[in-house]
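Model: Ready when you are.
Researcher: Fold this.
Model:
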Amino acid sequence: MNHDPNSRTLSGMRPTGPLHIGHYFGALKNWIPMQHTTASFFFVADWHALTSDYADTSHIREYVNGLVIDWLAAGLDPEKSVIFRQSKILEHAELNLLLGMLTPVSWLERNPTYKEQQQEITTKDLSNFGFLGYPVLMASDILMYRPKWVPVGQDQLPHLELTREIARRFNSFYGNVFPEPEARLTPAAKCPGLDGRKMSKSYGNGIFLKDTPKEIEPKIRGMFTDPARLRRSDPGNPDVCNLYPYHKLLTDEATQKEICEGCRNATLGCVDCKKIFMKSLEAFLEPLHERRAYYEAHPEIVSDILESGNKAARAEAAATMAIVRDAMHL
């Protein structure tokens, strides 16, 4: 594995349940090639899960292992990247405390996600200190490994910019310790939920990476298509169809062209279109399911991967914190 600090990548996900295909095309598809060209660190952000799910932590251990299996099934290679669990690297908590000392509260209050989620998530009390301060923990997670690249979507750029601001503020007080990480933008992948809303496990409108064909088939049968196409003989419009974005991701271009033409001139019905998608989806998921079956049959390997990744991450974190403590005269 390449440990050149000038080519490091870091990213993570919260263990809040199984991953759906939106997670794959929105993040994992971009992580996988990075592990071959950069020194890559991917972490399970279990402390971050507590910022909103602190009232019920009973599923966290299960979700941690499930998330790692999802990653391995999707193609992350523990020989090419460091896969670790955030809470096993206690240095993250120490750096979070130190960075929290110098981060203005106004920076946290202006965070757009903080405002949006407080308005949107009405079933949970998000008035806790941890939720307000999670960008500082996020900055600690990132800066600990001094990466050059952090793969993010367009909507996450404000989070990364706050990390860069915290790094600049630290460096202005204590010397040039942290390089400012750069965004590696993840191309937007449109993966609407089966009902047209955002794909989410809380809505029950997702196709999960672990779903079997038997589980997927009724989901696709009930999938929304062009709302104006009421009969088989009505011409359709792929541009407003909830299903067609998936063909763009999973179906070959020649077949996509045939689907568009058949939909617009009403020679291809929605049922037939869904059958084509089912075949494309099965072909995509088959190698993921094969890898999943292997790791589910060998849970000790998953434990070993995490333990090895934790050890490697801990060594990196210890080296960083030695520099930080020295710079702060602690």
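Researcher: Now this one.
Model:
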Amino acid sequence: MKKKILNIGWMFSLLTAALVTFSACEKDDDSNPTLDLSHVSEGFTLNVPANAANNVYDLVKATSLELTCAQPNYGGIPYVTRYYVQVAIDPAFLNDTTVAHKELSTSYTKAKMNVDALELNSAVVALFQEANPDTDFPNAARPVYVRLRAAIDAIAPYDGKSISYSNIITLPNVLATYKAPAAELPEKLFVIGSSIQTAWSSWKEVSPIFGLTGSYYTMIYVPAGGEFKWGTFNGDWRGYNRFRKITDNAGADVSESTDGNSNIIVAKGGWYTLLIEGEINGSSIQYDLTIYPGAAYVIGAGAGGDWTDGNAAWAMTAPADATTAWESPAFTASGELRAYIKVPGIDWWRTEFTIYKGACYWRNIDIPDNWAANVGADYSVTVAPGQKLYVNFDTNAAEVK
């Protein structure tokens, strides 16, 4: 395949020829206008809006902000020019245009432009938040500094030679308003701790409970005095104080660390099932933690056709620590593996899992028939009499043998 090479000089010539043919009809002499880029560095004039000093521009109530300017000097030819609006809130921008500023995504092709007020509002708020990450946005009028970047529309994407900048104007009283984004429940949560996989390094996923929006669960091992934290994403270090309520239904003797890190400390070691429930409250989400004794079961065909939820006869046996696997009773019949972590008060099939590529795969789909029919053959495991299910609930490695 031949590579096409863009000839900028040819494009300038063609563009100039197309735009000046109107003058070639009478006579052809040196008076014909030609593309002249020698003045782009001189800039062009952006006008201060009338009464800017006396007006308060309330950006969330306004539709647009009108700006007008002169066209850059490209040799006297009225090329179609595209204008980009740049804004800053730091007064240093007046003398140093490398300081923090934002260029709005919407551009304009007329020297009289109605700048989208909400887009400008978002830029002002973002500039403040980036400069002051730990400060609430003050909803008060402030100066905003504006300039335009211009380029010939037909060649702007290919070459920077036509780019020209306007002067910077000051809008003394601009009222931007912070609007909190709508709260959305995360797809999954995470835990990390002194005894979870690689200590204080591995972020273990906390899976959503199938069919229960805002509810999440997992199984962890914590030795006596062990600590853990949680988060809504990998690297989100939340602690004891980020839960609205903690309910200990396992006798784990949970407390908050006193070192300022707000770690969740478990005084009594053991396996625990964590149930985290999130509730949207306005623009934020509040989370509750309930701790239950760790428990897991097999059920269904391999359990001799027994579909009793929480039948002690089919409970898996917990290991002494996180280094070895949980072990199920021996299966008494052939059939598809059905297994689950037990969360009290919640149907077994909502916290069910199968084995996929050697690891637990947590149910995330309706299964009216079975894993093979409703999810796929690769997600279906057949067990035989005498075999057992082995699961390391720390690493989620699993096998039937």
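Researcher: Key takeaway?
Model: The CA atoms of residues 353 and 362 lie 4 Å apart.
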